[in-house]
Amino acid sequence: MSSRQSAVLVTGANGEIGHSLVRRLAAQGERVVALDVREIDAACRVHASATQVGDILDFGMLQRLGVQYEFGAIFHLAALLSTRGEFQPELAHRVNVEGTLNLLRLAVDAAETRGAPVKFLFPSSIAAYGLKGAAARRAAGRVREEDHLQPETMYGCNKLYGEHLGRYYMHHYKRLAAAQAHVVDFRSIRFPGLISADTVPSGGTSDYAPEMLHAAARGEEYNCFVREDVRLPFMAMPDAVDAMLQLASAPAENLTSHVYNIGAFAPSAGEIARLIGEHFPSARIHFAPDERRQAIVESWPEDVDDSRARRDFGFAPRFDLVRTFTDYLIPGVKRRYTKP
Ligand code: AKB
C-alpha cells in the first residue's frame, strides 16, 4: 500500500481552462496539484492543495511529483497555442508533443504504482482539422471526428498527434513486452474556441472573440484580426469545463472513442461584435483582418458534429450564444472590470 496522498494533476493550471477546472475539481473534493511554468496565480492557488512551478519538458520534476503524490487522474492542459506555434514551431512541437509524452510516461508510472489505470484527460482542438479555405469549409458543414484531419498549423498537427499518442498508450503500449499493461485511460475532447469571463487567452487564433469582449469591458478600442463574416464554433468556459468533468467521470464502457467533438454555437465575428455592442454601446470594435491569421481560422471547420459526445457521455451545453452573453460573460466581465 502506498503512503502517498492521492491527487489529481492539472498541467497548464494558469491557462484559461486551468483556472476554472482547478476550482471545479477542488469543489468536488479532489486534492489538486496545480502545475504551470509560471508562478501559479493567486486565483488558482487558493483552490489547489499544492502548486508546482516547472516545465513539463523536465521529466525529473514530473517524476519527483509522482513520488510525492499518487495521481489517479491527469488533466494535461499545458500547450503552446496556434498563433504562437506559427512563430515558434519547433518550440511548440517540443512543448506540445514531448511534453505530452512526458505526462503519458508519468501516467504509466503512476498506474503501475497504484495498480490501477490512470485517467488522462487531453484537451484537443478544432485545430486538428484542416480545410482548404472558405468554400471547402462551407461545403463540409458540421464535421465529424474522422473527417478533414489535415491540420495546417503546428499546434493542430501536435494536437492530432497527441490524440494518437493517447490512443497508443491506451490500447497498444509496449505490445511486444512480456507483460502488457493497458494502464492509461486516455480521453480527449476537441474544443472549439472558448470564451471566459475570467481569463483572456494568449497565443491562440480564436482569441479574437474573448479579446473583443474584454477590450470592450475595459473601455478599450479593438481591431479584430479576422473578417466580419468568418464563422467559428465557440463555447462558454463553464460548458467546456463541465464537458471535461463529464467525460472524466463517464463509465469506460459507455465510451466508444478516445476523441470527441463538442460544440455550442458558431457565430460570425460580426455577430459577436454586435452582441458586445448591445451590452457595451460605447464599444469601439473595428475589423482589420490579418490575412494570414484569417487563413488559419478558415482552415478550421465552421461547425462540428458533436452527436458522439451527446450520446456517449451526455454532453449538453447549458449556454447558447445569447445566454452566454446575457447570463455569463456580461455579468462576469462587468464584475471583473468594475472598480470597487
Ligand atoms: C487556438 O486558437 O489556438 C485555440 C484553439 C482553437 O484550440 N484556442
The total count of strands amounts to 13
Second rung of CATH, namely the architecture: 3-Layer(aba) Sandwich
| Portion of residues within helices | 40-55%
CATH superfamily: NAD(P)-binding Rossmann-like Domain
Count of separate DSSP helical elements: 13
Strand order of the largest sheet: 3-2-1-4-5-7-11
Average pLDDT? 96
What percentage of amino acids are in beta strands?
A: 15-25%
The ordered string of helix (H) and strand (E) elements is: EHEHEHEHHEHEHEEHEEHEHEHEHH
- Stated plainly, the CATH topology is called Rossmann fold
Rg measurement, Å = 20 Å
Number of domains: 1
CATH structural class: Alpha Beta
* Assembly context of the chains: single chain
Main sheet specs:
7 strands, parallel
Structural class: alpha/beta
